Amino acid sequence: RPRVLSGIQPTAGSFHLGNYLGAVRQWVALQETHDAFYMVVDLHAITVPQDPKELRASTRLAAAQLLAAGLDPDRCTLFVQSHVPEHAQLGWVMNCLTGFGEASRMTQFKDKSAKQGAEGTTVGLFTYPVLQVADILLYQADQVPVGEDQRQHIELTRDLAERFNGRFGRTFNLPAAYILKETAKIYDLQDPAVKMSKSASSPKGIISLLDEPKTTAKKIRSAVTDTGTEIRYDPEGKPGVSNLLTIHATLTGTPVAELERRYEGQGYGALKTELAEVVTDWVTPFRERTQEYLGDPETLDSLLAKGAEKARTVAAETLATAYDKVGLLPAK
Ligand code: TYM
């Protein structure tokens, strides 16, 4: 079985529809066909300031949401990044292979550091992508299911894997990004020119999966569209409407062309009303399942501990090989 690995940050509490459609939905599908490793990346979360109590709670909440979305611990390995110390360890080795200029070119770093300001930007935020490289290479992943915004980090992963292999001999598998074109980028409901984002979007622009259904419906009804009337998929000319069509099509499994036909002659209001129903029908059981998993933290924690144990056997082997190749003296 080919292997997949991916991760999601626990910050912001609730996942949003971009996280689900861009990534987690594919994770659920891939656990059936692939040897799948999925993690909550708490070490990545602390690259910007976090309240310790909230971080712990949101890490559990993230795991609960992944289970509620359909990850099955019998079909995939689900774990918390910091439970597997090899991530930080290989991260260090990879830091020592990464050019300063190379890391400076990461667009997510440029965006995030601009937001944090010079004093607020940590070295951790700078080397964030390199830790992600280690995440992926530790598991010798073949594919990495993510949204479009992660593409550059996967390219860096390939570059560093090649560099390591070239310098020390074949060690790492070169992974490929697994990005579905249709859902690679879900847009902000209030500003369909930018992606829906935990940190950048206004609350009205984000469909948070744990919102009250009423709130969700209201956000969809007030989504920004355009001054026209025709419901047509045209990302350039009608980004708002196209985004709504994408969400509808993916959640209901209806081809966009069929939706266009169905809404012919109808106004944007019809699309929004029906989409609000589609989304709330999906999130209502999702919220209930999340609460169920959260209601039993002991089971949740032991399930994560089992996941970490499975992950560690793979990660430890790769790390040992990498340390050896680099020439680190093994402890006797
Ligand atoms: P994160 O936590 O920001 O997002 C989790 C996943 O959701 C995707 N995503 C989107 N997809 C489509 N449209 C959107 N508007 C949208 N917003 C977010 C992201 O692309 C991502 O796949 N650096 C990663 C976490 C990470 C990781 C890894 C991923 C750490 N190590 C190793 C893969 C492999 C991140 O911050 O994702």
From TrEMBL:
<keyword id="KW-0547">Nucleotide-binding</keyword>
<keyword id="KW-0963">Cytoplasm</keyword>
<feature type="binding site">
    <location>
        <position position="186"/>
    </location>
    <ligand>
        <name>ATP</name>
    </ligand>
</feature>
<feature type="binding site">
    <location>
        <position position="135"/>
    </location>
    <ligand>
        <name>L-tryptophan</name>
    </ligand>
</feature>
<protein>
    <recommendedName>
        <fullName>Tryptophan--tRNA ligase</fullName>
        <ecNumber>6.1.1.2</ecNumber>
    </recommendedName>
</protein>
<dbReference type="InterPro" id="IPR001412">
    <property type="entry name" value="aa-tRNA-synth_I_CS"/>
</dbReference>
<feature type="short sequence motif" description="'KMSKS' region">
    <location>
        <begin position="195"/>
        <end position="199"/>
    </location>
</feature>
<feature type="binding site">
    <location>
        <begin position="18"/>
        <end position="19"/>
    </location>
    <ligand>
        <name>ATP</name>
    </ligand>
</feature>
<comment type="function">
    <text>Catalyzes the attachment of tryptophan to tRNA(Trp).</text>
</comment>
<dbReference type="InterPro" id="IPR002305">
    <property type="entry name" value="aa-tRNA-synth_Ic"/>
</dbReference>
<dbReference type="InterPro" id="IPR014729">
    <property type="entry name" value="Rossmann-like_a/b/a_fold"/>
</dbReference>
<keyword id="KW-0436">Ligase</keyword>
<keyword id="KW-0067">ATP-binding</keyword>
<dbReference type="InterPro" id="IPR050203">
    <property type="entry name" value="Trp-tRNA_synthetase"/>
</dbReference>
<feature type="binding site">
    <location>
        <begin position="195"/>
        <end position="199"/>
    </location>
    <ligand>
        <name>ATP</name>
    </ligand>
</feature>
<dbReference type="InterPro" id="IPR002306">
    <property type="entry name" value="Trp-tRNA-ligase"/>
</dbReference>
<dbReference type="GO" id="GO:0006436">
    <property type="term" value="P:tryptophanyl-tRNA aminoacylation"/>
</dbReference>
<feature type="binding site">
    <location>
        <begin position="147"/>
        <end position="149"/>
    </location>
    <ligand>
        <name>ATP</name>
    </ligand>
</feature>
<comment type="subunit">
    <text>Homodimer.</text>
</comment>
<keyword id="KW-0648">Protein biosynthesis</keyword>
<feature type="binding site">
    <location>
        <begin position="9"/>
        <end position="11"/>
    </location>
    <ligand>
        <name>ATP</name>
    </ligand>
</feature>
<dbReference type="InterPro" id="IPR024109">
    <property type="entry name" value="Trp-tRNA-ligase_bac-type"/>
</dbReference>
<dbReference type="GO" id="GO:0005829">
    <property type="term" value="C:cytosol"/>
</dbReference>
<keyword id="KW-0030">Aminoacyl-tRNA synthetase</keyword>
<dbReference type="GO" id="GO:0004830">
    <property type="term" value="F:tryptophan-tRNA ligase activity"/>
</dbReference>
<comment type="similarity">
    <text>Belongs to the class-I aminoacyl-tRNA synthetase family.</text>
</comment>
<dbReference type="GO" id="GO:0005524">
    <property type="term" value="F:ATP binding"/>
</dbReference>
<dbReference type="Pfam" id="PF00579">
    <property type="entry name" value="tRNA-synt_1b"/>
</dbReference>
